[in-house]
Protein 1
Amino acid sequence: MPLLDVRDLSVTFARRGQRTVRAVDGVSFGVHAGEVVGLVGESGCGKSVTSLAIMGLLPKQRGVTIDGVADFDGTDLLKTDARAMRDIRGRDVAMIFQDPLSSLNPVVPIGVQVTEVLTRHRGMRGEAATKEATALLDRVGIPDPARRLKEYPHQLSGGMRQRALIAMAVACKPRLLIADEPTTALDVTIQAQILELLKELVRDSGTALIMITHDLGVVAGMCDTVNVLYAGRVIENARRKPLFYEPRHPYTTGLLRSVPRLDAGRGTPLNPIRGSVRDVLPWPDGCAFAPRCDRRVDACVGEPPALVVGYDGHGYRCVNPTPQGAQP
Amino acid sequence: MTNLVEVKDLEVHFPIKRGVLFDRVVGHVKAVDGVDLTIVKGKTYGLVGESGCGKSTLGRALLQLTPPTGGEVVFDGVPLTSLPPKQLRAMRRRMQMIFQDPMSSLDPRMNVESILTEGLRAHGVGGNRTERRAVIAKTLDAVGLPRWALSRYPHEFSGGQRQRIGIARALVLGPELIVADEPVSALDVSIQAQVVNLLDELQDQLGLTYLVIAHDLAVVRHISDTVGVMYLGALVEEAAADDIYATPLHPYTRALMSAVPVPDPDVEDRRERILLAGDLPSPANPPSGCRFHTRCPWAQPTRCRDERPALRVIGTATHRVACHWAEDIEAGRLRPHSVEASLVTPPEMAGAKEAQGALESALENPGGPVI
């Protein structure tokens, strides 16, 4: 039984006078304690909306409909009311956002923002809260934490801000952590520091981690299982190694072939995927990736491809998958 | 092998000013601090480094978009730094730039045809209306955009197509040198490859010379012949692309290479990461001696702190490294040690953050008041 079990999650945005957008379309996946699950995809594939829906951060009115189940240890997070959700958020489930500067309050010192979590969920006050906050900042590798508590977000570098945000997220030892592109805004050397920190947290405390990213390199180094999203659906899910060495969906294959690699030399031509993410077919009319796909056959159009589950739970939605054993 | 661009001891220092009534200069942000490099005609020079290392400023200073405060830039035998404005403008035709974010570098109220015509008009080239049309049509074909694109506006295109418009705008004047500042970093992964391939094809067809500035080492490896690594305003290592990736000699280059994630689980599981402690020091108050000694796992007492290493040739003739101990590290005679992360903005240097801001506002608004 996974810690978080997401089944058939769908999110639609409707606005008067405009086309209804189905940003997430029947996404299912599970996360076990101590496991790192990746949600991978390009902009607009619905990976962030999925995480916001699980966290209950999407507005409930104004044409937003959320369907499906997100079973977190017996509680359906999607049906929980806002008040109960406030107790869960930050204590049991926490989130790290992409841009630390816009998710920290610029006019409140770091210390107050960190202790806020401790006061709200762990009932700590005054001296004890400050002491705990210092320990937290120290744990995430911020030098001279006592002084940093009095400083404002703009006085910290990007990497330090992301560390502060992680300190806030792990303050209550959450059982599930969602990291939405946690290193995209950072430089590579700082990215390596932050990823190492996240790995440590998972290893030491058994936290389940959902890693949302577009960087396949990060996925290769971090995730145990991977879900590849395209146009709001999971088009392939597998354990890490089968996904990288035997990808079945042509989109996954294409992505792996198009990424410039550090260990491939000058002159190796890249194999880009044709067209752009805008060229999608609506799912009810067939495979959304068909307009850009090299392996397209007639059966791709007409109805959406069903999920095929193969050996060891390796699943893909494709009627003409990349043959097994083909080099990615 | 002729050199198209020669940069000698280039310096760009931005003043940090304080005061209400009188602007006092209280220090300088040394964005670029003594860089020498040459770009061979028809080849690609890749410049990598992390944010704030001065790579973009170097690119802009090379085109004289940001006036250098010292040093010299020679383009095809002509010293640009001492050229009168009128002649400099004429030279600009031969060197163009591609920007990072295609949306903010294209005027949303101009259609593609006017975007492409503007440069031709400004330089008074391209002849009459029909001749201009022919030039533009040829450029569109070269970058793989359809003819109907001419009457459309930037917002009607996807990110990859917008970047193609940016490339077309640079190409339409028939330049020899193109400075591409982060040409693909704003694009989706599946689109990046399209643009990288396009840049490669254009170089083959038109014999262009590129200076590609990027933070993504994998992208740079794919398009560059020579790669230069910058840290805090100076080059720390420069070599042929394959060389620098096979045998990085500078500790910073090693750390940078080891930090780049590779989309291959086996490689990721095996590799040894060199984790750097702390952050980039402030360019307003760079460390003494070797700029990297505060974060270097191989730093040795006194010499690294006291003496600034110059670029020197090690190994192959084109491999230049600015490290006192490069040979000893390569031979394994020096072992890495752990480094305490140091505070980057101590309170007495509270100007450092503002200096960063000053750097950015100075880039946008060179003449205006700073801070």
Protein 2
Amino acid sequence: MFGYTFQWNQALARLPKMLDGAVVTMEVAVLSMLIGIAFAILLTLLRLSGSRPLRAIATGWVEIARNTPALFQIYMAHFGVASFGIHFSPFISLLIGITFNNAGYLAENFRGALKAIPDTQTRAGRSLGMSQLQAFRYIILPQMLRISFLPMTNQMVWAVLMTSLGVTVGMNSDLYGVTQDLNALTFRTFELFAIAGVIFYIITKAITLSARLIAARLFRY
Amino acid sequence: MFDTALTTADLIFLAKGAGMTILVTAISVAIGTALGIAFGVIRVQFGAALTAPLTFVLDIFRSVPLLIQLVLANAFLGMVLKLQLSGFFVACMVLSLYTSAYCAEIVRGGIDAVPATTRRAARSLGVSWGQDMRYIVLPLATRVALPSWIGLALGVMKDSALVYVVQVTELLKSTQILITRLQEPLFLLMIGGAFYFLISFPLARFGGYLEKRWSND
């Protein structure tokens, strides 16, 4: 019909390799998310702090992460820092790039969530003898994470999609990198990338679905 | 540290890349928004069940990496259909559809934010569907949707950095080409990054301002 012979068998024979790649993609995404959340909480604390320079650093991080392409951030983590004689492996560069991006976006989400939590709660905690940090840790933080659960799910999906950018810094063990290598080997571009696309689709759907189940269980009342 | 081999010709080369980024973004956002408004209105008007196929297709654009969408579209149009299309055309086409998928969500959210009672009141006063859309829904929905839409347009500009994969030399690719030649990655990347930042940051702030201003009343 198209004057083009689809050869799905050739591509499907490589499925196990691509699934291995999908595992690496998930590893990067989950790690970048966990470290990203930790940094985002730190950034949120810095932005709440009284110190001007600390606030400026946190705001700078957030604004750069949100206003430049993720690809640029990954380039910076790979080629940019190489100017200082620091050479990261593609895996680490990709992880740093995505983590930087995640932390910036999540910190902004956390700030939005904080607005929904009344100041009086911190003061109530303080008057019960908690320190500033204790009040944040035991009263504000749990509510903040809870309110931003949905944005965090979206960011997780973004993190998975962003792993495909690793190929630009020479990453070849993630799903996109593996597909690219297989494409160079077999030249079944359409078939291979269609399968990769389906795998990505399944991963993102699995994330949103499981997040919904977790949310239903965690936030019952 | 401040020595650089960057020449005026290189700067013009970067400016051309920046121009390409803006051109691809402008075309994609314009077409994508028009399509997105149509898709959004269709989804609200015909209900979730009837438009499930549309929702599914649009969802694919949001669940598969843009890089793969570009490679797939290029392979399908070039290798399967054997069409001789420029990379620029493929890039604009994919980015437009990508934009429309997100825009449809924003439009739907905007229309849903208009109270059904307000619309019914209008209709019961003899206002037609078209007039209701034009004079009731449009002004109210715009207040909700415009800040998100600005965010989307800026997101598309940042995502347009990926069209290098279909041989379109936009800003980040131009930067990358110069890095290969001049071996000054940090300096060149900072120029490229600053360009994105200087466009994105003020507009993002403006979007935030509109959101704050319009959410009070």
